[in-house]
TrEMBL record:
<comment type="similarity">
    <text>Belongs to the IspD/TarI cytidylyltransferase family. IspD subfamily.</text>
</comment>
<comment type="pathway">
    <text>Isoprenoid biosynthesis; isopentenyl diphosphate biosynthesis via DXP pathway; isopentenyl diphosphate from 1-deoxy-D-xylulose 5-phosphate: step 2/6.</text>
</comment>
<dbReference type="GO" id="GO:1902012">
    <property type="term" value="P:poly(ribitol phosphate) teichoic acid biosynthetic process"/>
</dbReference>
<dbReference type="GO" id="GO:0050518">
    <property type="term" value="F:2-C-methyl-D-erythritol 4-phosphate cytidylyltransferase activity"/>
</dbReference>
<comment type="similarity">
    <text>Belongs to the IspD/TarI cytidylyltransferase family. TarI subfamily.</text>
</comment>
<dbReference type="Pfam" id="PF01128">
    <property type="entry name" value="IspD"/>
</dbReference>
<dbReference type="InterPro" id="IPR029044">
    <property type="entry name" value="Nucleotide-diphossugar_trans"/>
</dbReference>
<keyword id="KW-0808">Transferase</keyword>
<keyword id="KW-0777">Teichoic acid biosynthesis</keyword>
<dbReference type="GO" id="GO:0071555">
    <property type="term" value="P:cell wall organization"/>
</dbReference>
<feature type="site" description="Positions ribitol 5-phosphate for the nucleophilic attack">
    <location>
        <position position="160"/>
    </location>
</feature>
<keyword id="KW-0548">Nucleotidyltransferase</keyword>
<comment type="function">
    <text>Catalyzes the transfer of the cytidylyl group of CTP to D-ribitol 5-phosphate.</text>
</comment>
<dbReference type="InterPro" id="IPR034709">
    <property type="entry name" value="TarI"/>
</dbReference>
<feature type="site" description="Transition state stabilizer">
    <location>
        <position position="22"/>
    </location>
</feature>
<comment type="function">
    <text>Catalyzes the formation of 4-diphosphocytidyl-2-C-methyl-D-erythritol from CTP and 2-C-methyl-D-erythritol 4-phosphate (MEP).</text>
</comment>
<dbReference type="GO" id="GO:0008299">
    <property type="term" value="P:isoprenoid biosynthetic process"/>
</dbReference>
Length: 241
């Protein structure tokens, strides 16, 4: 089976003075998360599309699906965990609990606040994860990367030709993701920043898939303004609630 998982469990603390998580803010005429979900619904290769939401926003998310006519039977809203790792595993844990998980299952995981994902990126993730077990979507680094451990002095300046900026989707063989995560020490789990790091810490290879500069993540008010201009031009620089 091929699954999708849209991660919408964050509270959007970097968006500033707004009264809801950023994924629920309107971009153009619909919430950011709806733009994202629609991209995945258009792909008929997915057997199920999980939407992982913070427990306090489950009802709101369900109402949004109804409001915007997203009645696809493949859509399922799940409650997120206490951190990103547990939210990432919400879909896999559901499959485990229902006795549906097989060794061949793959899952394409994506940030709900990256609404400009393309059909090509989704397809490349599906094709690659079916072959390589773990996939990360990246673009080549444009700026020089400076490494500093103390935040005051430079330790190194890596060769930019070897540096990439991570995006999503990140895609995985589901059973392997669960097994590798469960095998990590508690200290290792504490430093996880994304799913691919589970594989890296376990000594596994992660295949790179080319992303797009336009596949931006809406994290702060500046990102929101850029995304709003991408949707409908220079109309209103303030988040619409």
């Amino acid at each position: 089976m091929i699954y999708a998982e849209i991660l919408a469990g964050g509270i959007g603390s970097r968006m500033g003075n707004v009264n809801m998580p950023k994924q629920f803010l309107k971009l153009g005429n619909k919430p950011i998360i709806i733009h994202t979900i629609e991209k995945f619904v258009l792909n008929n290769r997915f057997d199920k599309i999980f939407i992982v939401v913070h427990p306090e926003w489950l009802v709101h998310a369900k109402n949004l699906l109804k409001t915007y006519g997203l009645t696809d039977e493949r859509l399922m809203i799940l409650s997120g965990g206490t951190d990103r790792s547990e939210s990432l595993l919400a879909g896999p844990r559901y499959l485990q609990a229902e006795g549906l998980l097989t060794a061949e299952d793959v899952i394409i995981t994506h940030d709900s606040v990256r609404p400009f994902i393309t059909h090509r990126i989704i397809e490349d993730n599906i094709d690659s994860v079916l072959k390589y077990d773990a996939v990360d979507t990246v673009i080549g680094a444009i700026d020089t990367i400076v490494a500093s451990e103390d935040g005051e002095f430079i330790q190194s300046i890596p060769n930019r030709d070897h540096m990439y900026q991570g995006q999503t989707p990140q895609s995985f063989n589901v059973a392997k993701l669960v097994r590798l995560f469960d095998d990590l020490s508690e200290d290792a789990k504490a430093i996880l920043s994304d799913g691919c790091k589970v594989f890296i810490l376990s000594g596994e290879k992660v295949k790179l898939v080319e992303g797009e500069v336009s596949n931006i993540k809406v994290t702060n008010p500046y990102d929101f303004n850029v995304a709003n201009h991408m949707i409908e031009g220079d109309k209103d620089d303030q988040p619409s609630l």
